[in-house]
Amino acid sequence: MGSMFRSEEVALVQLFLPTSAAYTCMSQLGELGLVEFRDLNASVSAFQRRFVGDVRRCEELEKTFMFLQEEVRRAGLVLPPPEGRLLAPPPRDLLRIQEETDRLAQELRDVRGNQQSLRAQLHQLQLHSAVLGQGHSLPLAATHADGLSERSPLLQPPGGPHQDLRVNFVAGAVEPSKAAALERLLWRACRGFLIASFRETEQQLEDPVTGEPATWMTFLISYWGERIGQKIHKITDCFHCHVFPFVEQEEGRLTTLQQLRQQSQELQEVLGETERFLTQVLGRVQRLLPPWQVQIRKMKAVYLALNQCSVSATHKCLIAEGWCATRDLPTLQQVLQDSSSEAGVSAVVHRIPCRDMPPTLIRTNRFTASFQGIVDAYGVGRYQEVNPAPYTIITFPFLFAVMFGDVGHGLLMFLFALAMVLAENQPAVKTAQNEIWQTFFSGRYLLLLMGLFSIYTGFIYNECFSRATTIFSSGWSVAAMATQSDWSDTFLAEHPLLTLDPNVTGVFLGPYPFGIDPVWSLAVNHLSFLNSFKMKMSVILGVTHMTFGVVLGVFNHIHFGQWHRLLLETLPELVFLLGLFGYLVFLVIYKWLCISAASAASAPSILIHFINMFLFSRSPTNRLLFPGQEVVQSVLVVLALAMVPVLLLGTPLFLHWQHRRRSRRPTGRQPDEDKSRILDSSDTSVAGWGSDEEKAGCPGNSEEAEFVLSEVLMHQAIHTIEFCLGCISNTASYLRLWALSLAHAQLSEVLWAMVMRSGLRMGREWGVAPVVLVPVFAAFAVLTVAILLVMEGLSAFLHALRLHW
User: Fold this and answer.
1) What is the 3-state secondary structure (H, E, C) of 669-709?
2) Which stretches are tagged as biased composition: Basic and acidic residues (predicted)?
3) What is the mean pLDDT of residues 759-763?
4) N or C: which end of the chain has fewer CB within 10 A?
5) 349 phi and psi angles, rounded to 5 deg
6) Which long-range contacts (CB under 8 A, 24 or more apart) does 581-586 make?
7) What is the largest CA-CA distance in the chain?
């Protein structure tokens, strides 16, 4: 429990790893996660370290893994998660993994290349078949520059003026988006000395690159003249057209078409065999790649950790330094002995003294991880500071529930989180790749408590989907008011709204046992009542929350022995906070307890009293709550203002006085005394102090650090300004509890009135209630989940997060 409320005690350890067993030892330490290593080669370039070659080999393998993973994804397959616990492979296995990986990658490249080539050839054959089988009719006429009409035959009979000219043909296919531009450019460039026919293919052809079906435009161009033909070929090349030979005779075209179809069929069989072989290769990749990725990633991490070690003078062992939890030191020693037993030389661990600030170590489990993440998102505390996460387990869901209080909405959230908690060990739930689902699943215990606390505050507000429930008997009696008042028929006809007077005997029987009386849901002034109640409740919760945060600092000061901060910081902060805003909370509670219903009409205003408190004035129309109130308020304001200079100058002046007193002391202490003093401290070495430990020594005594008064004053001034202004702004910021709670309640009320109430009314009027209520309830459920649970829940979560930060 100590590690949960305060970070664990951490020690600096020095490891002596035999060269032959260094990899095994480091691998086992990485599996257990017991040590955070320090870089002893910070001055050495990353390219000059001992194991840089092994790191590069791992990185090259990772690049090959990325290629294989991309090929698997391209084929529409998914890599399964690795099974079991995989350790970092021995260094001798790296060559085997590299050879098998390169062989698989080469096979994939070859098969992919063959597949692309076969697909391109099949696509060309299919396009050629489509051009020949499209049914383009041969042109019978064309225009000529000598004035021939369009109906004159293109092929003149023998003995005509054009008997020496031969008509040529260009056939091919082009993308549909380029067909119009191609036809227009051909007509303009050739001046009409051609006849072009464009038709869309009847069937879609598979694209050889993307694999998606696409439509093509086939064309048949007839022309005469060598220069016209050169222009046509240049233009079709510019448009990346597929041009095929065209046989004029019908019999020749049919023969060619039959040959093309036969070749396409043979090519499809070869392509099918190629794809089956590709499937086999991808199956092997699916089976081998996931464990290899984990193993190589761990191997790379081991070599990167070994690069942080320094080499001993004899080059027989590696020296590493790292931080380790004190309670894990026996486990660390045992792991090193087991890992280095095969090498014949046992690894050694020493605990060495150091005055550097150790890292913060807080162990978490599946329940506390989400709450610790909320705290760490703002900032990680210093070593051995109080950890606010255990208190956040209660305060965060509670502040959320204050803004989200509704029994029905809280129950839905609770059930959703409970389902995730019960299914948390199922592999399908753990390995889900959806990012939104992963976010909800990682915070399932947080959602569970948020829903549970929302149910609790929903009972206090007496709201379930914005409807009040009558669990106990109401504390208000309408019968008593009717019998003791002059409510005649005429009075009831003239007054649609009736008032229950608590001063009338028997009307108010006592407070509701738990929460708000359900009779308030029928009152016209329901919103005004909740407005006053929730506003005051927000101020009380805010001041209590801030005071609790200041009190937590007391445990830090006591733990670190900073007794002067208790008097010079914590006490002035508490006096300032409680003298002003704690007094406001006192006024609220005092007014609740001491003002009865009989004197409620003349009750004084707390807000006016609080304003007059700072102005040192008095309002004649606002009576005092208790005798001597003005004197108490004046004393509290003066006392709070007097704490500001104490908070600003107290700690810097004390530290300055302490530094001057320390500087007057004689500094002739012997080195042996310093050494024995360090060894007797809490950071005492486990196995003594050796020459290697002195070589990796720590900074000198912190008492010799230079004291700069201006820096301390600046830091304390920032802290003072932040605290004093924060007390005012944060108290006002806690009013968001009031605003968000009212907004959630009113939004629930509007949704009920606009959807469910309208549906119930229509069902009663039309006499088909079941038929009407099914779609109405479906709409109500969808809007409730989408708006009130998701959107309002996210809004309340963000505001609760801001209040904690």
Assistant:
1) CCHHHHHHHHHCCCCCCCCCCCHHHHHCCCCCCHHHCCCCH
2) 670-680
3) 73
4) N
5) -125, 135
6) 581/539, 581/543, 581/546, 581/727, 581/731, 582/543, 582/547, 583/613, 583/632, 583/633, 583/636, 584/539, 584/543, 584/610, 585/539, 585/540, 585/543, 585/544
7) 135
d(CA 220, CA 172): 7
Name the residue among 409, 411, 374 with its Cα closest to residue 394: 374
Q: At what angle do helices 629-663 and 709-733 cross, to 10 degrees?
A: 150
Answer with the residue of higher pLDDT: 682 or 622. 622
Give yes or no for a contact between 62 and 300, defined as CB atoms under 8 angstroms apart.
yes
**CA–CA gap between residue 151 and residue 155 (Å, rounded):** 12
**C-alpha distances out from residue 58 to 193, 301, 310, 340, 378, Å:** 66, 10, 22, 24, 35
- pTM value is 0.74
Q: What is the CA radius of gyration of the chain?
A: 42
Q: Distance from first CA to last CA of the chain, Å, rounded?
A: 24
| Beta carbons of 235 and 186 less than 8 angstroms apart | yes
- Spatial separation of the C-alpha atoms in residues 27 and 793, rounded to whole Å: 44
The model's pLDDT over 361-372, given as tens digits with 9 standing for 90+, comes to 888 888 888 898
The tokens for 256 are: 């060619």
Q: How far apart are CA 242 and CA 131, in angstroms?
A: 10
pLDDT, averaged across the chain: 82
Beta carbons within 10 angstroms of residue 466's beta carbon: 22
Task: Please give the structure tokens belonging to residue 154.
Answer: 């293109």
Q: What are the counts of helices (DSSP H) followed by strands (DSSP E) for the chain? A: 29, 11
Average pLDDT of span 284-310: 91
Q: Give the Å distances, CA to CA, from 500 to 482, 484, 532.
A: 9, 11, 19
Q: How far apart are CA 183 and CA 221, in angstroms?
A: 10
DSSP state of 465: T
CB-CB neighbours of 669 under 10 Å: 11
CA distance 148 to 3: 102
Identify any residues that bridge with 13 across adjacent strands, giving them in sequence order.
322, 351
**Angle at alpha carbon of residue 143, lines to 142 and 146, rounded to 5°:** 135
Rounded distance, CA 188 to CA 405, Å? 76
Quick one: pLDDT band at residue 675, thresholds 50, 70, 90? very low
The answer for residues whose C-beta is within 8 angstroms of residue 51's C-beta and 6 or more apart is 303, 306, 307
Q: For residues 372 and 557, what is the distance between their CA atoms, to the nearest angstrom?
A: 22
Chain Cα centroid distance, residue 340: 41
Are the beta carbons of 565 and 651 closer than 8 angstroms? Answer: yes
pLDDT digits (tens, 9 = 90+) for 702-717: 444 577 888 889 998 9
pLDDT over 90 percentage in the chain: 17
CA pair distance 459, 438, nearest whole angstrom: 31
Neighbours of 63 (CB within 10 A): 9
Residue 390: is its pLDDT beyond 60? yes
3-state SS class at 223: strand
Determine contact, residues 405/411, Cβ cutoff 8 Å: no
Give the contacts of 457 (CB within 8 A, at least 6 positions apart). Answer: 398, 401, 402, 404, 405, 410
**Angstrom distances, CA of residue 531 to CA of 66, 159, 741, 743, 745:** 59, 108, 10, 11, 11
Residue 105 CB coordination number (10 Å):
18
DSSP 504: S
Mean pLDDT of 82-95: 85
Angle 52-74/92-132 helices, nearest 10 degrees?
A: 30
Long-range contacts of 287-292 (CB under 8 A, 24+ apart): 288/100, 288/104, 289/65, 289/68, 289/69, 289/72, 289/79, 290/79, 290/80, 290/81, 290/82, 291/82, 291/83, 291/86, 292/61, 292/65, 292/97, 292/101
